[in-house]
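Before a colleague's protein record goes any further, I have to sign it off. What it holds is a sequence and that sequence's fold in token form. Would you go through it and say whether the fold makes sense for this chain? The record follows directly below this note.
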Amino acid sequence: MRRIADILRKETVGGTLLLVGAVAAMVWANSPWSDGYQAVRDLTFGPAVLHLDLSLATWAADGLLAIFFFVAGLELKREFVAGDLREARRAAVPVAAALGGVIVPAVLYLLVAGGAEGAARGWAIPTATDIAFALAVLAIVGRHLPTALRTFLLTLAVVDDLVAIVIIAVAYTDQLSPIPLLTALLPLGLFAALVQRRVRAWWLLLPLAFATWALVHASGVHATVAGVLLAFAVPVARSEKAGGPDAGPGLAEHFEHRFRPLSAGLAVPVFAFLSAGVALNGLDGLTDALTSPVALGVLVGLIVGKPLGIMAATWLVARFTHARLHKDLAWVDLAALSILAGIGFTVSLLIGELAFGAGTATDDHVKVAVLAASIVSALLATVLLRLRSRVHRRVHEAETIDRDHDGIPDLYQDAGDETIAGDHRQG
């Protein structure tokens, strides 16, 4: 089990399982046994109390994705509290990029599809980047890229997903029941009190986490919000009473290590499998789906809006504030990354279901468009990231060559760069 868990923690494995789930759903939904796929999606189970008698597809969208957002929230909190983003100047750039990657795609979607009847309700579909899919592509093709690029992508993807969750809570909550929502504060508060005391007992924490999730779900707010709230309650710093920095990983890191295999190996692939199955009805059906106003809006929003919004927001922040790109990143690296951010799989599919209703014709158009835009973005980004990976590899190799053994890489001596050479003499 430990070996399996270690395998599932690899980003390439999680992204591969997501794709396998999506492809399997598409194959089954377009096979002679497509009725069986729909029957599996509609299979209902669970207690009626707190409206938990849900279909299997809803359990995946509301329950399994809460695990996904719990893990994502833990990683983001660790980055902001103890990671590369603890400095406000460094964190401002990817956060601004994420906001630009939310606003511009939404605006372009409305410009393209907003005129069609009822289409405006899907304005938030192209706002989110799929963390698992995008990081998997980066891990596969970017072996020699700077680690700062992964941190930038992680922050961008988690922030815009969190923004998307806030949008879901505000814009796609039709009926809000305040009593369950307020009641959810009780188990959430108890959970927070226990984890602040570094309690790890699953038999205490899991019932409180499930109670928080169930009450948030019953309130009408999308239940994935509970995953984010629970993650933000977990402390990052190690307990001084437990021995300080030498006492092992902090609680956030511990939980992330434990739950990541569950998220990557079960939550996201099962959601993809139960959400991505669309009956295309041949080439004509595919053409009809991709040419609908909603699908065109999603395509433009993800493929064009994401890169445009991310690059524009980053440039504005770097131009008019003291925030700067990480020293290891070039603008061309960011351009490739901004295209990769057009992969909007998991949360985009979720918002599509909430906006237009699961199983409707418009929701099917959204799924086709999200899949197509994600594939196009992944392919374009793969080409650019591979080229940049080769450049970074050559630079790294050149920087390690010092034939005269004077402590100064030949790259800088040959270029006559006295400033950099001087830095190496001092260092």
The longest helix spans residues 361-399. Confidence is low (pLDDT under 50) at residues 240-246, 419-427.
